[in-house]
Amino acid sequence: MTSQNEQLAQIGVVGLAVMGSNLARNFASRGHTVAVYNRSPEKTRTLIADHGSEGDFLPSETVEDFVASLERPRKAIIMVQAGKATDAVINQLADAMDDGDIIIDGGNALFTDTIRREKEMRERNRHFVGAGISGGEEGALTGPSIMPGGPKESWETLGPLLESIAAVVDGTPCVTHIGPDGAGHFVKMVHNGIEYADMQVIGEAYQLLRFGAGMEPAEIADVFAEWNKGDLDSYLIEITAEVLRQVDAETGKPLVDVILDAAGQKGTGRWTVKEALDLGVPTTGIGEAVFARALSSSLDQRAAAKGKLPTGALKTFEDLGLSKEEFIEDVRLALYASKLVAYSQGFDEIQAGSDEHDWGVDPRDLATIWRGGCIIRAKFLNRIVEAYDNDSDLPSLLLDPYFNGELKDLIDPWRKVVLYATQLGLPAPVFTSSLAYYDSLRAERLPAAIVQGQRDFFGAHTYKRIDKEGTFHTLWSGDRSEIEV
Ligand code: ATR
């Protein structure tokens, strides 16, 4: 499609399903010439037919033509199905490219795949950038939050291009170089994990208002719209209000009542938790959110258990003896507290991952680029930026003076809501487990001393003492004296 006389493209996009097409259109709308290629040419033709007039596109029907239509160093973003397809396309591009050209994977790749691919490409003198892109279809088109990893040199070339298409908050584009090799995909993974927890806590708040206080979806939509004006101001709260207001055209019922209550998942939440387990970071909020989706989708088991398990003596909302307004406010504060814990845990995982892989991820930069474009964008992230501005080595976000001050006001309502949920028999796994995490973190003593005693008893696993150095074992099956080992 191109000859030497023709214009070359500053950037190329491979894979023209919705995300890829929208990203290509975003580049074109910012004045870049964009090379586009898709395995099946129909998608390329459709993009050009439907949106070709929006900017300068250079369509190709072979990888070789596509690569030839790119300005050097060539820069191509891959937006294909994660997994084998990504490897296939990377290799096709690498074969057609030259030394120093840059291949960017904008899909949701597992960060360990990205580490492997970056190494393979480095050995072939190609630059490989695994970039997390968040914002869904709309964000890809109008301004996503972008989390590129890979070699720092690639960022020098790629940075201005990505900055031109990213969301912008207070004049700052929502993109920055996250760190080497898999760093970008790692933080995107944890971003998605946090998203799972954030969605779940909103769901738990809905559940309490709906089946605790007996409110109708439209009324709850108004409550959420109101919440969206305060500390909870965020994209997810905003869209939840929209979902709750939606009426099903076919039945005239609230849409939420006709949607099957079985949540799907594509895997990034699960990856976040698996990785947290390996790193030994207690991301309990994200874990509960992933398990909540799994439980919701266990439809056969749920059907078998429905109405069959004893409930004990449940209370009604009236029994709680508080006004609807008080309840709504307590739920709002419990949501805020649980959300704070989920973010704090997510940032802990990022810190642990960064330490493990020596990535040098700056949590402040990350909070900055999550303020716009991505699904977890929220006013609250400004506070996280300030927290890391004040102390870049914060041991936990919960210990930041601002959040610590907030927690003074949140803790009592949070405890009450966990109690209400239990008394009403309504599941609130993230509200509940986040409070348990919080109480564990601040505890003077944990039952881990008992666990250590048990481990020493049955397996001679030894223990340490609080009052002196060394490792000890009690001769449990002997005279029960203690020895130093
Ligand atoms: P969506 O869910 O939005 O459709 P996806 O499934 O993540 O997106 O990705 C689909 C894209 O991956 C398509 O562009 C698809 O190309 P086709 O239109 O030809 O199917 C691309 N894709 C999938 N497997 C591929 C492969 N092995 N080689 C090249 N492209 C591939």
From TrEMBL:
<feature type="binding site">
    <location>
        <begin position="80"/>
        <end position="82"/>
    </location>
    <ligand>
        <name>NADP(+)</name>
    </ligand>
</feature>
<feature type="active site" description="Proton acceptor">
    <location>
        <position position="188"/>
    </location>
</feature>
<feature type="binding site">
    <location>
        <position position="455"/>
    </location>
    <ligand>
        <name>substrate</name>
    </ligand>
</feature>
<dbReference type="InterPro" id="IPR006113">
    <property type="entry name" value="6PGDH_Gnd/GntZ"/>
</dbReference>
<feature type="binding site" description="in other chain">
    <location>
        <begin position="191"/>
        <end position="192"/>
    </location>
    <ligand>
        <name>substrate</name>
    </ligand>
</feature>
<dbReference type="GO" id="GO:0050661">
    <property type="term" value="F:NADP binding"/>
</dbReference>
<dbReference type="GO" id="GO:0004616">
    <property type="term" value="F:phosphogluconate dehydrogenase (decarboxylating) activity"/>
</dbReference>
<comment type="pathway">
    <text>Carbohydrate degradation; pentose phosphate pathway; D-ribulose 5-phosphate from D-glucose 6-phosphate (oxidative stage): step 3/3.</text>
</comment>
<feature type="domain" description="6-phosphogluconate dehydrogenase C-terminal">
    <location>
        <begin position="184"/>
        <end position="477"/>
    </location>
</feature>
<dbReference type="Pfam" id="PF00393">
    <property type="entry name" value="6PGD"/>
</dbReference>
<dbReference type="InterPro" id="IPR036291">
    <property type="entry name" value="NAD(P)-bd_dom_sf"/>
</dbReference>
<comment type="function">
    <text>Catalyzes the oxidative decarboxylation of 6-phosphogluconate to ribulose 5-phosphate and CO(2), with concomitant reduction of NADP to NADPH.</text>
</comment>
<feature type="binding site">
    <location>
        <begin position="15"/>
        <end position="20"/>
    </location>
    <ligand>
        <name>NADP(+)</name>
    </ligand>
</feature>
<feature type="binding site" description="in other chain">
    <location>
        <position position="108"/>
    </location>
    <ligand>
        <name>substrate</name>
    </ligand>
</feature>
<dbReference type="InterPro" id="IPR006183">
    <property type="entry name" value="Pgluconate_DH"/>
</dbReference>
<protein>
    <recommendedName>
        <fullName>6-phosphogluconate dehydrogenase, decarboxylating</fullName>
        <ecNumber>1.1.1.44</ecNumber>
    </recommendedName>
</protein>
<feature type="binding site">
    <location>
        <begin position="38"/>
        <end position="40"/>
    </location>
    <ligand>
        <name>NADP(+)</name>
    </ligand>
</feature>
<feature type="binding site">
    <location>
        <position position="108"/>
    </location>
    <ligand>
        <name>NADP(+)</name>
    </ligand>
</feature>
<keyword id="KW-0570">Pentose shunt</keyword>
<feature type="binding site" description="in other chain">
    <location>
        <position position="293"/>
    </location>
    <ligand>
        <name>substrate</name>
    </ligand>
</feature>
<feature type="binding site" description="in other chain">
    <location>
        <position position="266"/>
    </location>
    <ligand>
        <name>substrate</name>
    </ligand>
</feature>
<dbReference type="InterPro" id="IPR008927">
    <property type="entry name" value="6-PGluconate_DH-like_C_sf"/>
</dbReference>
<feature type="binding site" description="in other chain">
    <location>
        <begin position="134"/>
        <end position="136"/>
    </location>
    <ligand>
        <name>substrate</name>
    </ligand>
</feature>
<dbReference type="GO" id="GO:0006098">
    <property type="term" value="P:pentose-phosphate shunt"/>
</dbReference>
<dbReference type="Pfam" id="PF03446">
    <property type="entry name" value="NAD_binding_2"/>
</dbReference>
<comment type="subunit">
    <text>Homodimer.</text>
</comment>
<dbReference type="InterPro" id="IPR006184">
    <property type="entry name" value="6PGdom_BS"/>
</dbReference>
<feature type="binding site" description="in other chain">
    <location>
        <position position="196"/>
    </location>
    <ligand>
        <name>substrate</name>
    </ligand>
</feature>
<dbReference type="InterPro" id="IPR006114">
    <property type="entry name" value="6PGDH_C"/>
</dbReference>
<keyword id="KW-0521">NADP</keyword>
<keyword id="KW-0560">Oxidoreductase</keyword>
<dbReference type="InterPro" id="IPR013328">
    <property type="entry name" value="6PGD_dom2"/>
</dbReference>
<keyword id="KW-0311">Gluconate utilization</keyword>
<feature type="active site" description="Proton donor">
    <location>
        <position position="195"/>
    </location>
</feature>
<feature type="binding site">
    <location>
        <position position="461"/>
    </location>
    <ligand>
        <name>substrate</name>
    </ligand>
</feature>
<dbReference type="GO" id="GO:0019521">
    <property type="term" value="P:D-gluconate metabolic process"/>
</dbReference>
<comment type="similarity">
    <text>Belongs to the 6-phosphogluconate dehydrogenase family.</text>
</comment>
<dbReference type="InterPro" id="IPR006115">
    <property type="entry name" value="6PGDH_NADP-bd"/>
</dbReference>
